[in-house]
Write a structure and sequence with these properties.
224 residues, alpha+beta, Butyryl-CoA Dehydrogenase, subunit A, domain 3, five-stranded antiparallel sheet, 5 strands, elongated, membrane, transmembrane
């Protein structure tokens, strides 16, 4: 691999590592969506919630005055409590979430995110092995793993989005307002970086195309 190509690979890998960090931040945090019930009166407490792939967190917020009917914002001080979803930890209690959404959505989003992490780990291990062993051909499967990781995380995002939509549209729900928070944004940004730069890494690792019509692929620079 020549110096110019090696520089492109390293820069692409750095961008991929940023995507990896964003994806890990999204998967382990609990701020994918924030839910707010209708506030009937002021000078009272209301309970807002935010959740991720694994846990639901609720916060009791004292409402003094607000321009809208929702409870929040979620960053106001209040009594905070987090619990794992019942289908992940039977010992924990999260009835308020279990009643208003389909647990199949939550399980599916979490399972797809685990596949994304697996592909990401495989891509990173193979890329580092390529650098260590000087085996350029290993960059191709690594790039594919990163691309698959990006696709999986965006599928997980869409499943979560459908889960929130069905929950808000349900007649039995107590939630009136919702918005997607920074964990959701991290997952979307991770998809862009992993998918785009995974494809870029694949294109960079491909053999050089013939420069002239009479030059064959056998005449291209050999891979090491």
């Amino acid at each position: 691999m020549d110096d110019a190509k090696a520089l492109k690979v390293r820069l692409t890998f750095c961008a991929i590592l940023v995507g990896v960090s964003l994806m890990l931040a999204a998967v382990v945090t609990d701020h994918w969506a924030v839910l707010s019930p209708k506030v009937e009166r002021y000078n009272a407490t209301c309970e807002a919630a935010h959740f991720g792939l694994w846990r639901l967190c609720t916060k009791r917020i004292f409402v003094v005055d607000t321009d809208h009917r929702g409870c929040g914002p979620i960053d106001l001080p209040g009594e905070h409590n987090c619990s794992y979803f019942r289908h992940f930890n039977p010992g924990e209690s999260s009835e308020i979430f279990e009643v208003t959404t389909q647990k199949e959505y939550s399980i599916s989003a979490a399972a797809i995110a685990i596949f994304s992490i697996f592909f990401m780990i495989m891509g990173t291990v193979i890329t580092l092995l390529s650098f260590w062993k000087k085996k350029d051909y290993l960059l191709k499967p690594a790039a594919m793993f990163y691309t698959f990781a990006g696709l999986c995380i965006i599928i997980s995002v869409e499943v979560m989005r459908q889960s929130v939509k069905r929950m808000i549209d349900s007649e039995d729900t107590v939630w009136m307002e919702y918005y997607y928070s920074w964990s959701f944004a991290c997952a979307c940004a991770a998809f862009v970086l992993l998918f785009v730069f995974g494809v870029a890494l694949l294109l960079i690792s491909l053999p050089r195309l013939p420069r002239n019509p009479w030059e064959t692929c056998m005449d291209a620079d050999p891979e090491h």
